[in-house]
Amino acid sequence: MGKVHLHDRWFEPFITPQELERAIDRVAGELKQHYAGKRPLFIGVLNGAFFFAAELVKRLDIECEVSFIKVASYHGTASTGKVSDLIGLNERVEGRHVVVVEDIVDTGRTLAHVMSLLAERHPASLAVATLLFKPEAYTGTLPIDFIALRVPNAFVVGSGLDHNGLGRNLPGIYRIVQSDQTASS
Length: 185
Ligand code: IMP
Ligand code: MG
Fold this sequence. Notes:
Blueprint: E1 4-6, E2 9-15, H1 17-35, E3 41-46, H2 50-57, E4 65-70, E5 74-75, E6 78-79, E7 97-105, H3 109-119, E8 125-133, E9 146-150, E10 156-157, E11 173-176, H4 179-184
Parallel strand pairs: 3-4, 3-7, 7-8, 8-9
Antiparallel strand pairs: 1-2, 2-11, 5-6, 10-11
Bound molecules: inosinic acid and magnesium ion.
Residues 48, 73-74, 79, 102-111, 155-157, 161 line the site of inosinic acid.
């Protein structure tokens, strides 16, 4: 894994694919224990969660359903804080054990919005599973129930996460290199 250039910025290897897999194994084990016999409905938040949702459910040998929704809040490398409505949710949520699957929880604004819209539909229970969590950036009050890995407050890409559309396909996680560092190397 070497440095990669996406649009105007450099990114350096930060979490290896192997580390990521181990973290997903662990969180999948927690979910399996918690949801066996409850037929959970996993709702991935597109686009970023496609990777984690797939990696998660392929490890869950329990009865479950998987669906995806779309919201948008991020432009460039700073959260705009603007979030739109849920797009594409066709499943009946009432009475179901729902797990929202996220690529990353940063400020938590996107998640809070998604959770409140889903809560209005009266699920039997509502939880969140995220690949990455930035505790230093989080300003929310909801507990983040299932976390694969905690990361520092830096912009990251790979395994579903993008920088203006690029980088979602990178294995593992890459972290942004500050511009003054790239200038001197
Ligand atoms: P929040 O609303 O601030 O929690 O941001 C949530 C969304 O912003 C995530 O679902 C990502 O799409 C995006 N995001 C937040 N941090 C990063 C990052 O470090 N890299 C890429 N996307 C990010
Ligand atoms: Mg996202």
